[in-house]
Amino acid sequence: MSNGSKPKCVVLLSGGLDSATCLAIAKSVGFEPCALTVLYGQRHRIEVEAAKRVAAAFGVQDHRFVSVGLSQIGGSALTSDIDVPKDRDNESMTAEIPVTYVPARNTVMLAIALGYAEVTGAEDIFVGVNAVDYSGYPDCRPEYIQAFEKLAALATKAGVEGRPMRIHAPLIQLTKAEIIERGLELGVDYGLTHSCYDPDPDGSPCLRCDSCLIRTKAFESLGLRDPVIREP
Questions:
Q1: Looking at the domain assignment, is residue 3 inside a domain?
Q2: What's the total number of domains in the chain?
Q3: What's the pLDDT band for 37 if we cut at 50, 70, 90?
Q4: What is the pTM of this model?
């Protein structure tokens, strides 16, 4: 527990649209969030800066940054010199697991979150994975989250002592548009976030990668303009 009346939780915060919404949800249901941003060897640090902005906007007091060199094993367009797919239609996006999948990323991040939670006394972890409007990543499915929660009960001191960690994935069955609607209700400023896989040198989104296309389409379906898109 925190010094006040609110229980602590750990929120995996990448700086993207989903994790920002997840942070807002954690606060809205009464938790004091501790944010965890993992520097996993991604090709740019723009999303890390976005995570800092989002955490500050929500008044997060404890924001940790942990480095893990997944770029040392590569295998992904986000961690090695592999071209990011562009201009794909929905059928192409969902035909197979794309090269933007980072091997073991969510498993590594959740494992670090487990350790962070134990140290802070938190019994709840929030992660913004989504199994509806996503690019086919195997570690974004409900069965993966359920399996990891079982692992957490076995792999931690807290679990052995009868205080198993709860893994919350509140966005997992929502469409991207539904996620945005929920976030706007909770005061998320999506202009602070970053979702692009292959941004321009100035940080502007490419508007052509899978992540950009899914995000832009979701805002448009709500009759809104994505606030990260600069006026022409």
A1: no
A2: 1
A3: very high
A4: 0.94
Residue-by-residue DSSP string for the chain: --SSSSPEEEEE--SSHHHHHHHHHHHHTT-EEEEEEEE---S-SHHHHHHHHHHHHTT-SEEEEEE--GGGT--STTTSS-PPPBS--HHHHHSS--TT--TTHHHHHHHHHHHHHHHHT--EEE----SSSS---GGGSHHHHHHHHHHHHHHSHHHHTT-PPEEE-TTTT--HHHHHHHHHHTT--GGG----SS--TTS---S-BHHHHHHHHHHHHTT---TTSPP-
- Domain span at residue 213? 8-221
pLDDT value of residue 135: 61
146 lies in some domain:
yes
Q: What is the CATH number of the domain that holds 168?
A: 3.40.50.620
Q: Does the residue 63 lie in any domain?
A: yes
Q: For residue range 73-130, what is the model confidence (pLDDT) as tens digits?
A: 899 988 999 999 999 988 888 888 888 889 999 999 999 999 999 999 999 999 999 9
For 162-212, the pLDDT digits (tens) are 999 999 999 999 999 999 999 999 999 999 999 999 999 888 999 999 999
